[in-house]
Amino acid sequence: MYPMYNVMLVDDEPIVKVALRTMIPWEELGYMICATASDGVEALTLVDKFNPHIIITDLKMPNMDGLQLIKELNNRGFAGKILVASNHGEYELVREALVLGAVDYMLKISMKTGDLIHLLEKSTKLIQEQLQSRQQQETQTQLLQHNLKSVKNALLKDYFTDPYYDVQQLDQHEAITFAFSESSCYLFYITFEQNNATHNERQNHISVSFIENIILDILETVDQLEIIQLESNGLLLLISCDTLDDHQIIRTDFIQRVIRLIKMYISITPTIVFSDPVRGYAEAKRTLERCKESLLIQFYNEITIIDPKDVHLKDTLDFEDVHDFSTQLIQNWKLSGVEAVTQATQQFLDICKSKQINPAETKKFIVNCLHYLPLCDAHLIVEDPKLLKNYIENIASSKRTTDVLSIMELVFQLFSHQKQQIVTTHNRDVKQAIDYINTHYQKKLTLSLIAKHVNLSENYLSRIFKEEVGQSIIHYINTVKMEKAADLILKGNPYIKEISTQIGIHDQFYFTRLFKKHFGVNPSEYKNHVQATLGSGN
């Protein structure tokens, strides 16, 4: 099916217009006569209304002739094609019409169907070529603009991320227009790093074009702004002060709308740091660094909108002492278990938050305390030193106080307190038996099993064990199991059946009798008993 082209007929002789209308099957060939006029003046009034692709015009007409019409159409930027219909003897007029841009001409007196179709096809071919050329030019222009924009964004990214990139280096790129070399703008740093660390990888695909569309939703324009992707999850937005002022939008309202739209589209809540007006890229670079530093305050609590003027981080922690706080943690752990350690740590972090202590200093202090803990209590036992080292490293790299609290809980679950007398012996067989008991206390241990392990008879092992240790091997096994059970109770495990199972005793009633015989109180009373004893200083 042919595309439909609009054709206008302009002639002061009605018979000519009738002849043209009936000469060919216009619509079958893809043409439609959209309007007719009797002179140039009337034709001009109809051009804007009907937008003809082709105009067939007489040269001699009253009011405004064909040449005047062509000139006026050229002045108006008419994009269609013009064919002229002439009489014999009008060759000079035809020549001038062709010079003015007419595609071709036809003689009214000898006009034939085939000639008219040929001229129409010639005109439509030129229209198609013109359209293709225009589309190519538009594509090339868009590509050039895109390339220039990409180059500009790359230069600005290098400038804002490289501390040695000087603002004068931007001025050397004369082919690129930087919007805020001299003018004032608001600076917004948009990041998804701090409070979305657990989100999926979609945050790595948040692009400049996505933020541009967000801004377009709010301001209906993306003029007078620059968006630079500094990191995969961090973008810098510079927007003209006049742009927001003209839309009568205050900065915090603008930020809230940006956050709301981002959350609506991709279900991620960003953090946005904003500044007062800055002038020029040098001031913008200094301000960006201040904005990034203020993000550290999110260690203490999640904030979606940050004004750097409200953040004054201190690099000195002088309200607490490592020795005193470490001692407090040990005492709290002995008295009330891991929960008390968490509570004391939370109180410490709350004070750091209120004083705006730099999170690096806060974490450094806690790490020093964890290293100092064994010096506070010689009987403190670390069950897995390698895991403890990993926990300490995790605290140093943590991004949230909640992370610190969780890790502190794990740290103190690694600790136990050595209450039983340390047994020293020079007998290799007895030492081997003791090591086996301390390592396998979770199992059901018997004299036969231990004797087999050390490759001795039961009677001989019992005798030399009693001589070296001062107690029977069964009594020593029960002592180790009870001390381990006591540690589990102090760590906060309230279930007697679970504790007895963990030390290899599956009869909880037997375990309770054995525990009371060893400590003088039932397992359910032991924690309160220890707290009362330590609290009284005994």
Automatic annotation (TrEMBL):
Q: Which GO terms describe its biological process?
A: phosphorelay signal transduction system
What's in the keyword line of the UniProt record?
DNA-binding, Phosphoprotein, Transcription, Transcription regulation
Q: What is a single molecular function from GO for this protein?
A: sequence-specific DNA binding
Annotated HTH araC/xylS-type domain ranges read: 431-529
KW Repressor (keyword) present: no
Residue intervals of the Response regulatory domain: 6-123
4-aspartylphosphate occurs at: 58
- Name-wise, this protein is DNA-binding response regulator
Write down the species: Paenibacillus odorifer
Organism lineage string: Bacteria, Bacillati, Bacillota, Bacilli, Bacillales
